[in-house]
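Can anyone check this?
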Amino acid sequence: MTVQTTGEGPTVGVAGSSPFRGSTGSLSAAFFDLDRTLISRPTPLALAGTFRRSGILRSRDLFRATLWQLLFTLPGVDGARHASVEGMSLLQGLPVATMQEILGEAMESVLRPLLFAEPLDLLERHRAAGERAYIVSASLHEIVEHVADDLGFDGAIGSTCEIVDGVYTGVSLRACYGEHKADAVRELAANEQISLSESTGYSDSYSDLAFLDVVGTPVAINPDRRLRRVADRRGWRILRFEKLFEPPAG
């Protein structure tokens, strides 16, 4: 998989074999939200301690992030652009290579213990059916991509920060939330010839309603109150994820 971050947002190249083609002849795919869908708590908050120890965050930054309930993840549509700009500004001057090193260290010790087991089972089912699988999240693209690579997804889309000469500038390029998240999925589907009407989307949040509306099979995962009401009204499947992933012994 190759990912290039540009001003137009991430361009995702996908590698895969024998993909499932639906009745239209197009590919089908599964799109997973990250926070509280694949991982049991917001990823940026889970990583906040690691970022603080590495010097990326100061105490006042951590307090502000906790108040927003995020760092690079957006709090919903209201005020999201402000939060995105502020969150990305914390990255100013940080080499991308340093971020990758931090994520490499944190994946095993911080993020893997927070993974739900149930979506990983669903991932295997989609892959066994020959379907592609993607993580689509409002979190920083490099975080989402790292998790996707580690778990064997075909691609990832997240919010992007401008990168110049391998260093974050702190300038937010594209926030992958709300309608922007839906647009990113449409763009990927068009580029990869994926039929969204024959694809599945998983999310926990009402803020992802636009994203869930673009797929043929939306599934609510541990939904918040507003998403549960929509799911009940529209007859969407509702799943409860509770079991954390346990790596094989030995």
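Reply from J.R.: I decoded it. DSSP finds nine helices and nine strands in the chain.
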